[in-house]
Design a protein that fits this description.
2 copies of one chain form a homodimer.
Chain A: E1 5-6, H1 16-22, H2 32-49, E2 55-59, H3 62-71, E3 79-84, H4 87-98, E4 102-107, H5 116-125, E5 129-135, E6 137-138, E7 143-144, H6 147-154, E8 160-164, H7 176-179, E9 183-187, E10 198-203, H8 205-211, H9 223-230, H10 243-259, H11 261-281, E11 297-301, H12 308-317, E12 321-322, E13 324-325, E14 334-338, H13 345-361, H14 370-379
Parallel strand pairs in A: 1-12, 3-4, 3-5, 5-8, 8-9
Antiparallel strand pairs in A: 2-10, 6-7, 9-10, 11-14, 13-14
Helix pairs in contact in A: 1-10, 2-10, 3-4, 5-6, 10-11, 11-14, 13-14
């Protein structure tokens, strides 16, 4: 129990079962045995994406998957509508620019989220948008975008729908085929609760049509190669993958299958609600409006007169609970509680118990136990 | 003992100590504790590279490091001299082309290696070569290139020296600073004997001068970002790294430090010699000439009338020893024994015992024990 509890929007706490899985012996990545593991892991991944498309496993961070999603679909100067309401929306814009795309930015104030009608307006203004990028769950602001509704709008346009579900998949509703998502990607260390270092991407038939007409501008993340090697005998990746992390991802996906995806999402929604109620009971103010707030991470305004190092430093050093700070211009203005992966009432009880003590220690007027009580009310 | 023995040119057998290290709990990748691990691992990495330059850890395959080495130094149409004597030399050429470079290929027959004077000749013919790429240890052919001598030639030219030591670092002589290497990179799963999925790259001052004048054509592998985050407080990587695999790499590098780099290289040289002597004693023919053969992988001609699936299939299925086949046009014509990482006489005794039985079973005339005897003669 003395181990630091990670309440971050990734990496999240990894279960012993997964830690045991990754410590198995490494096998030949070009063997039939590994081909089976790769195939099964990809299939489990597609189930979580809710897609009939093939999922490809990339050895790299979530940012590698972002790069794969963009670099493979762009010829020079292709227009991309980047919906930007936080740091990861900005990152997709930056990647678009690095790979020679022509970024049309739909900028939304941090803490708010894209409205489907705003996206429709941009598509009407610009006829030749090759792709629209949306971050489902903006961890920097704790806001979830309405990707289902946006998908409905995009069905009337000849454009690819690219959705970043790095910090939502496995913790919030994502239905790749039903929402009409062409390219969807995620990371291992968020709601899937595997160690960091793997990413996954899935591509629709329309996505492949575009990719097949694009000159590759990435070698390591060239999805055409992943497709080719993926149907080999045995199925392989083009370059040596992290066999070890794929063991971990496989085990994490088996755990998700056992829990059931719907039950898992409900658990995340409960954890989010409990976090919001508990924060409010302690007199704290939520950063985004509740109706658009994320199921996997909650951003909370820093109390007046309190510094980030005081609040998060005390939480970490005195109580061994690691929270996330604000990013970029939100640094010092918000702190964030990640409740993704394996989080239950237990971790939230610890977190709010620690937060209550921290706030009290720092001179803030709180009733000890009042936050934890709200957690219990949600989970009882 | 019933576990399959990997005698591949990567991934290699990972020690229990490293497997235990990777199963430790994941910590926050933006914490002071992780900053220390990152710093120490980078420092240990630089010691193995024998450089005073900073080493950067990339979450990805060796191919990610190849891409980082090329994509960061090229403006469109910059000339690169790609020395090609096998599959990985070809890969560096392909990456050069993908990133808009103008590849000048010095093609050498597979099984042979570049002569410094040939490289000199190319540099005299082409004044504006921005970089020369050399694969130190061409795993596809089992040949080591004379990177020290090539470095001496390159000192007279204003060009970057880019050396792929993916399958040699930690098993053969690499002295980045002394050889004048500007960009050197490696992978975790070869001679370092960590699990696959991490790569490392080191850059000289001259290398940085070039990188600072190049427009980034990669986002995930943009080395300028790695440099910036690497000197942060705490030191970080720009994107979530594989905390887990860095634990493993750290432990693997500590093991190398304990063994001593010189002793480790001597052990690899012994293993290579033992492998060659044993193969010859069994009547097998080495693919490359002995004087240029690799310290970490030995390529052997497939005996006449024997198929790859017979030889390697029997080794794998009957005797649980995994060897590598030939790549591209060498498929079916050679097989390869990797002897990198933690290999001692024990693994070679198993391998040659298995190979003797396999050959005999397949109707080849061998004296059982005659290969193993040669291994013992080298290691006694």
């Amino acid at each position: 129990m003395d181990q630091t509890l990670l309440m971050l929007p990734g990496p999240t706490n990894v279960s012993n079962r997964v830690l045991q899985a990754i410590s198995k012996n490494v096998v030949n990545h070009r063997s039939a045995i590994f081909g089976e593991i790769l195939t099964e892991t990809s299939q489990l991944m597609s189930k979580v994406f809710k897609t009939n498309n093939q999922s490809y496993l990339l050895t790299g961070s979530g940012t590698a998957a972002m790069e794969a999603a963009i670099a493979n679909i762009l010829n020079p100067n292709d227009k991309v509508l980047n919906v930007i309401s936080g740091k990861f929306g900005e990152r997709l814009r930056d990647i678009t620019n690095v790979f020679g795309g022509n970024s049309v930015a739909l900028n939304i104030e941090w803490g708010d989220c894209a409205k489907p009608e705003d996206i429709k307006e941009e598509l009407e203004k610009n006829e030749d948008i090759r792709a629209v990028t949306v971050v489902h769950n903006e961890t920097s602001t704790g806001v979830a975008a309405p990707i289902k509704k946006i998908g409905k709008v995009l069905k009337d346009y000849d454009t690819l729908y690219v959705v970043d579900t790095v910090s939502s998949l496995g913790g919030d509703h994502v239905d790749v085929d039903k929402y009409g998502i062409d390219i969807c990607f995620t990371g291992s260390q968020k709601c899937l609760a595997a160690p960091p270092g793997m990413a996954a991407v899935t591509v629709s038939d329309d996505g492949w049509k575009v990719i097949d007409n694009v000159k590759s501008s990435t070698y390591y993340l060239d999805l055409k190669k992943y497709r080719k090697y993926g149907v080999g005998t045995p199925p392989e990746t083009p370059y040596t993958p992290s066999v070890t992390l794929i063991y971990g991802l496989y085990e994490a996906l088996k755990i998700i299958e056992e829990e059931g995806l719907d039950a898992r999402i409900k658990r995340h929604e409960k954890a989010a609600k409990a976090t919001r109620e508990a924060a409010k009971a302690l007199g704290l103010k939520l950063f985004p409006k509740e109706e658009i707030s994320s199921a996997t991470v909650t951003a909370i305004n820093m109390p007046d007169g309190m510094s980030d190092s005081e609040l998060r430093g005390t939480m970490r050093n005195e109580y061994k609970v690691e929270l996330a700070g604000g990013q970029d211009h939100l640094k010092g203005n918000v702190f964030r509680i990640g409740h993704m992966g394996n989080i239950t009432y237990k971790e939230l009880a610890i977190t709010f118990s620690a937060l209550e003590m921290t706030l009290k220690k720092l001179g803030f007027d709180v009733d000890l136990g009042s936050g934890v009580a709200e957690v219990s009310k949600v989970f009882i």
